[in-house]
Amino acid sequence: MFSFDGIEVVVFDFDGTLVESNEVKRAAFFQLFDNTNDYSELIEDVLADSNAKSRYEVIETILVHAKYSGNVRKQQEKLVAQYSAMVLSAVKECPEIDGATQLLERLAMDLSLYLSSMTPENVLKEIIQYRNMSCYFKAVYGYPRRKEDTLKLIMQKEHIKCDELLVIGDGESDLAAAKAVNCNSYILSKNDSLRDLLIALGGADEEC
Q1: Which of 39, 89, 111, 189 is least buried, going by the fewest C-beta atoms within 10 A?
Q2: pLDDT tens digits for 18-75?
Q3: Residue 145 sits in the same domain as residue 192
Q4: Is 80 exceeded by the pLDDT of residue 162?
Q5: CA angle 17, 189, 207 (to 5 degrees)
């Protein structure tokens, strides 16, 4: 069973870790592009090769691979704005991952919590505030910050060693960032649950 012994700071990912928003964001890329063009296969390929990259990078890659004939940067900015508008309200309202609030409440009693995501930082802060989650985190970090750089910044701010830091996420980018700074990680898979961490803390019934 996982143990929090020695952990002083926990850094959470957001999408797919605290809220069930991964599919909402994925579907929005397919809705974004002109239905008269068959971008489906291209988008599938780009997303498969772009785990946890920002919307800016994903959209730019799609445009480049589609050999967009206009100004790529200008079109990218336009499509990013449209994409952000499409997903903002949905992510604000989507269900949380089972046990998320309970885990945050329990950990915030004893540890310093941070949020790190590839969602644009201003958008991420708006979502966190709307969902009344700001009270749990000492700071919220998003794109264009790299997750690895965010972890280094947090360690400096908290004056902690790498073995006192834990990353909780659901993607390869979370694991890669944790490995880059040699800190602990708990990467959720389809068979994992935040309630497993609550059980480790003594904050949930094992039969829940």
Answers
A1: 189
A2: 999 999 999 999 999 876 567 888 999 999 876 668 999 999 999 999 999 999 999 9
A3: yes
A4: yes
A5: 85
Same domain, 40 and 104: no
Which tokens in the block code for residue 186?
């708990």
By the 8 A CB rule, do 104 and 136 touch?
yes
pTM value is 0.90
Question: % helix / strand / coil in the chain, to the nearest 5?
Answer: 50, 15, 35
Q: Which residue has the tokens 């909780």?
A: 168
Say how far apart CA 96 and CA 158 lie, in whole Å: 28
d(CA 128, CA 199): 25
CA distance 52 to 70: 27
Check whether residue 40 and residue 133 sit in a common domain: no
What token pair was written down for 183?
Answer: 């800190």
Query: Which residue among 93, 112, 138 closes a domain?
Result: 93
The letter for the amino acid at 56 is Y
**How many other β-carbons are positioned within 10 Å of the β-carbon of residue 74?**
9
